[in-house]
Amino acid sequence: MKELKEWIKSIIIAIILALIIRSFIMESFIVDGSSMQPTLANHQRVLVNKISYRFREPKRGEIIVFPLPNDENRILIKRVIGLPGDKVEIIDGRLFLNDEEVREDYILFKSDNGFGPVVVPEDKVFVLGDNRSKSIDSRNSQVGFIDIEKIRGKAFLRYWPLSKFTYFN
């Protein structure tokens, strides 16, 4: 009987710890779609650090997870391009940030069309998918600028499939 109580106590503690970790520290997400290729592919799994943005603002180039502004149940994963006050523009498929061209080694194909210029408002970020032609991102009115407070976290580790195991800065 004493052994059964210990098992139950251990299971309850494990469940509580798992809930705390998932709610406040890190969470696993499944990539849905091809908008982040070649960096992330459909059905790959990433771990997201949920605590870092409680202590600092997002940085350019980080891959973040956030809910679609008009549908909190739909989660998107994109790359931070513009920070508050930044001017973002796409000309002939080339990304310009504050009037300087950005070298993007992580994309395969440049976008066909232009965009902007737009200036990122305070407390928001501008995000793009790495696969520009297949991405619904800040260029789309359905997504727009992302409230920093709505960001769920920063993707820091692709753990599935194991053959693609990667740590992201």
From TrEMBL:
It is a single-pass type II membrane protein. InterPro entries: LexA/Signal_pep-like_sf (IPR036286), Pept_S26A_signal_pept_1 (IPR000223), Pept_S26A_signal_pept_1_CS (IPR019758), Pept_S26A_signal_pept_1_Lys-AS (IPR019757), Pept_S26A_signal_pept_1_Ser-AS (IPR019756), Peptidase_S26 (IPR019533). It catalyses: Cleavage of hydrophobic, N-terminal signal or leader sequences from secreted and periplasmic proteins. Residues 5-160 form the Peptidase S26 domain. GO terms for biological process: signal peptide processing. CDD domains: S26_SPase_I. The keyword Transmembrane applies. It is found in: Cell membrane; Membrane. The active site is at S35, K78. The keyword Transferase does not apply. Its EC number is 3.4.21.89. Keywords: Hydrolase, Membrane, Protease, Transmembrane, Transmembrane helix. It is an enzyme of class 3 (hydrolase). GO terms for cellular component: plasma membrane. The chain crosses the membrane at residues 7-25. One of its GO terms (molecular function) is signal peptidase activity. Belongs to the peptidase S26 family. This is Signal peptidase I.
